[in-house]
Amino acid sequence: MSEVRIVQNVLKHNDEIAAMNRERLREAGVFCIDLIGAPGCGKTALLEATIQQLHGRINLGVITGDLATDRDAQRISAGGAPVVQINTGKGCHLDANQVRHAIDGIDLDGLDTLIIENVGNLICPIGFDLGQDAKVGMFSVCGGDDKPAKHPHLVYAADLLLLNKIDLMKHVRFDRDVFRRDAKALNPDVELIELSVADGRIDRWLDWLVSRPQTARATADAGKGV
Ligand code: MG
Ligand code: ZN
Known about the structure:
Layout: H1 3-27, E1 31-37, H2 43-54, E2 60-66, H3 71-77, E3 83-87, H4 96-104, E4 113-117, E5 134-140, H5 147-150, H6 152-157, E6 160-164, H7 176-186, E7 191-194, H8 203-224
Parallel strand pairs: 1-4, 1-5, 2-3, 2-4, 5-6, 6-7
Bound molecules: magnesium ion (MG) and zinc ion.
The site of magnesium ion (MG) has 4 residues, from helix 2.
């Protein structure tokens, strides 16, 4: 069997499990987000700030993936949200089967939204469906304004792009217009939100996040003729 064939089989199997995850989350009325970004762009810090600022407006659960340690889970659980840590060892992305097992550790009935913090990586997490409703791509100004152009697949796949650490804009070489132009050229419909987790400027992200489950429920209800 050729290498390509094996990869295709792995992805097919992954997609089947992802469909099961999606069905399970939908039945529980949970909106699921796959958060993808490079190491250090601020994914975990954003989740900490989000949990702190939401103040019970929606019930959030988190699955977080890292090669090693439970440090992110420790940080996130300090805010009171249910969290499951996945350690991938040498694995550079999460797959649907890992997420399926992680979901077993979370009480879905108590949740509105589940955020999966993927392994810090802009490349292969994009190819693995986890059963999410939306993919969020996260960049930071420290990563440089060329990242959308260099990582087009994340931009294509994303429903929302976040640009973090805008408080550091004046200290690094970053052209906001280049970043925006490249992102919009690749995905004209993508929403782009600038934020500074360090300064607590995450309001637009919170608004987006809070409106998602309501939108999903309204769509589901409309489908049922409610
Ligand atoms: Mg993290
Ligand atoms: Zn990978």
